[in-house]
Design goal:
By secondary structure, the protein is of the alpha+beta class. The protein has 23 helices and 18 strands.
Length: about 625
């Protein structure tokens, strides 16, 4: 049974609150946005107040009210909720076009429709809207309805109400809007997606001219004044760049200063961001992900391992501002990208890069009494690999055996020191990256490997300037010695083989040009693809996957999907810099060994290699496979 109009109005008012008037907090005086600059002082964007606030009618410029009514409802103060003349014009238009059009709606009808009714274009819905509009006008004054309209209407790009629109497009409170700016906003409600001030310039100009024409027809604007508006159009501020980065800056400010301070604004923030690197990261991620599949998503984080400065962060392959921030807050399983932290723990305990391991399958007690058998990717097994070879080729079997040797508590504690909390309850499967992490945290956890032993906490804000008080606050880098530098260096040295001979060998050319280390990661059923790598001065990580986890299909691996994106970004970031080798810290020693035995090479060894060790764990015994033979003894005459 159809609802009666008075009952619909009752439901509407109930849904709106006890009273639609001022149902949001009023916009406080002095509310301002937060301006964010990059590390070189280049404009990045503005963080707007996110709360919807109510603007009273006296704070809405008279010219804006006049312009909006002229183009939307010129007889607003004369009709009782419906405009019969407007309806007549609409009916003529309907007959002409042979369909129901949307014309003829008054401000009150638009308010009712946008807030309470569907968008279907039927006669029944129009009658329902008209009846509710007439009842609404009996309950509220014209000024109250107009005030509601300005606070409820959508202005495009996520801006609901005039307060958000004024801030987004012009960085002003409504009462400070110029007449040229009012002209643009008055034309938006007709089609917010097309006519908002950041739409296509031709469309925006066309709609502005429609508004001007109506103002001229009604005698509110002279021909000369119209010409003046054309000569001096309003300047619109650009949309913010680096939306994921700005979202993280906002979250940090809210944590440090409180949500109210962020909403009040009035700050100038200098971020650690490098805008040129950010643009390169956005372009590289977008091109790399979208060439694979339009449904895929991705994220990229790059930071300075010496200071923790987050130089670029992209949380969306399309560069959009979304509630899901894949760079900083989204958590996924890292797969084998966790293994470097495990191997660093093992090396710190005395295991060496040249020690050999059995890669044959093994069973461990599993859930429900069933055995758990870790397996390598595609079921392949290595022939007694060294620890370095097992890391380069990402042996899952060896990684689990290493964790079993190292001990779960020791690994969890070591990863925690590196800034990466892990779920100990996951057991030995932690060696395969089953504990979910954020991309930012994983890249941050690699900093002790790039900057031997030192954890550099990710830093997004360099300094803030309170424009009201003039006070400056510096955000100093947070760098702590958390791990054995020699063990970290040896692990990084092993990781170089990942790019030269291992699961990311497609990056060999770049690795030969620029010393770098890294690790691929591919989760079970190939749902997530990772690559995290670093040079001495830049660490970066890439994640690619689906927001709703599902298999990526054959070939969806960290080496094939994420690593090429990482390489293209790194080429743009460091491609023109002089190659810089990793510097060995105190406590790391280099020994010439026989690759077959792992012991000290002799002159008789057919092949030798340079290997790094933590001092005290290096081999002391000459190679037993190729020991020099003693000279033959001659009989004494």
């Amino acid at each position: 049974m159809a609802c009666r109009p008075w009952f619909l109005l009752f439901l509407a008012v109930t849904a709106w609150g006890q009273d639609p008037i001022a149902r949001f907090p009023q916009l406080p005086p002095g509310t301002a946005s937060i301006t964010v600059m990059d590390r070189q002082g280049r404009f990045v964007g503005r963080i707007q107040p996110s709360r919807r606030t109510w603007v009273t009618l006296d704070r809405i410029p008279a010219f804006l009210r006049q312009a909006l009514l002229a183009v939307e409802d010129a007889r607003f103060y004369e009709h009782g909720g419906i405009d019969l003349k407007g309806i007549a014009r609409a009916l003529v238009r309907d007959v002409t076009h042979g369909r129901m059009a949307e014309g003829g709606s008054t401000i009150t009808q638009q308010l009712i429709k946008n807030r309470f009714l569907s968008n279907e274009r039927t006669l029944d819905r129009k009658l329902q809207e008209a009846r509710m509009a007439m009842d609404f006008e009996k309950k509220y004054s014209k000024d109250q309805i107009l005030e509601m309209y300005f606070n409820e209407i959508y202005f495009g790009n996520g801006a609901w109400g005039l307060a958000q629109a004024a801030r987004l497009y012009f960085d002003k409170n409504p009462e400070a809007l110029t007449e040229a700016e009012c002209l643009l906003l008055a034309g938006v409600p007709k089609n917010p997606g097309r006519y908002n001030p950041l739409g296509k310039p031709a469309d925006v100009a066309l709609r502005r001219d429609v508004v001007l024409k109506r103002l001229e027809e009604l005698g509110y604007v002279s021909a000369a004044r119209k010409q003046d508006f054309w000569r001096h159009p309003a300047a619109v501020q650009p949309l913010p760049q680096a939306p994921s980065y700005l979202a993280q800056v906002r979250a940090q400010l809210a944590t440090e200063l409180g949500e109210d301070a962020v909403e009040r604004g009035g700050l100038e923030v200098f971020a650690a961001l490098d805008l040129e690197l950010q643009k390169a990261a956005e372009r590289t991620l977008r091109e790399g992900v979208k060439r694979l599949s339009p449904d895929l998503q991705g994220a990229l984080v790059a930071l300075d391992p010496l200071t923790g400065d987050v130089l670029a962060a992209v949380g969306d392959a399309e560069g959009q501002a979304r509630s899901l921030n894949r760079a900083f807050t989204s958590r996924r399983q890292p797969g084998s990208a966790i293994k470097p932290l495990l191997y660093a723990t093992a090396v710190d305990q005395g295991l060496t890069a040249t020690s050999r391991w059995n890669d044959d399958p093994v069973a461990y007690p599993g859930a429900g009494g069933r055995p758990w058998k870790p397996r390598n990717f595609a079921g392949e097994h290595l022939e007694d690999p060294t620890l370095a070879e097992a890391l380069a080729h990402s042996s899952n079997v060896v990684a689990v055996k290493v964790l079993d040797r190292v001990g779960l508590p020791a690994f969890v504690e070591a990863a925690g020191r590196m800034g990466l909390p892990l779920r100990a309850a996951n057991g030995l499967s932690l060696a395969l990256g089953t504990s979910e992490v954020t991309l930012k945290d994983l890249v941050q956890a690699y900093t002790p490997l790039a900057n031997p032993g030192n954890l550099a906490q990710a830093r997004t804000i360099l300094r803030t300037h309170d424009l009201r008080t003039g006070a400056w606050v510096e955000h100093a880098p947070s760098v702590q010695a958390v791990f054995n530098p020699a063990a970290c260096f040896v692990t990084a040295w092993m990781m170089q083989d990942v790019l030269l001979h291992g699961t990311a060998k497609a990056l060999r050319t770049f690795a030969q040009e620029h010393p770098c280390a890294g690790k691929t990661g591919t989760t079970e059923d190939q749902q997530d693809a990772w690559f995290v790598g670093f040079t001495p001065h830049l660490a970066a990580g890439v994640w690619v996957g689906f927001d709703r986890p599902r298999p990526g299909g054959r070939g969806f691996t960290g080496g094939a999907v994420a690593a090429p994106i990482w390489e293209r970004f790194m080429r743009k970031a460091v491609g023109h810099a002089e190659p810089e080798p990793f510097q060995a810290p105190e406590g790391a020693v280099q020994v010439t060994v026989d690759p077959a035995s792992g012991q000290v090479a002799t002159d008789a060894c057919p092949a030798t290699a340079e290997a790094w060790f933590v001092a005290g764990t290096e081999p002391q015994t000459p190679c037993p496979l190729h020991a020099p033979q003693a000279p033959e003894t001659q009989p004494v005459p």
